[in-house]
Specification:
Structural class: alpha+beta
Radius of gyration: 17 Å
Largest sheet: 3 strands, antiparallel
Shape: globular
Distance between the termini: 51 Å
Order of helices and strands: EEHEHH
Strand order of the largest sheet: 2-1-3
Mean pLDDT: 86
Number of strands: 3
Strand content: 25-35%
Helix content: 25-40%
Length: 101
């Protein structure tokens, strides 16, 4: 039961590696397309929260659509990529164009 120090590959209960995703969502209002970048271990739930107005303050009051996501093996890697994508407006624009926005 739980962690066994002599077993190879044994992971303590509650410490299994989680996958984190970096995502880009967009909202179109008339002629303006707004984008938001975030990270989450449960991307479906996170986007649902954005659409219910319970996500980030910036995302309230809009209908959001997922157009990009990429999985990472650690939270730290996902946070670094989220920061990079948030600051790289050129890459965000390319992703939006590729997806018809």
């Amino acid at each position: 039961r739980g962690f066994h120090p002599r077993k190879r590959g044994s992971i303590p209960l509650g410490t299994a590696k989680m996958k984190y995703s970096v995502y880009l969502i967009v909202s179109k209002n008339k002629k303006i397309t707004t984008s938001y970048v975030g990270y989450s271990s449960d991307i479906k739930n996170r986007i649902m929260l954005h659409n219910l107005g319970k996500g980030a303050k910036f995302t309230k009051g809009r209908k959001w659509e997922l157009i990009y996501h990429k999985k990472y093996s650690s939270k730290n890697k996902a946070m670094k990529e989220e920061y990079r994508l948030k600051k790289n407006y050129r890459l965000r624009k390319l992703i939006k164009i590729k997806n018809g926005f």
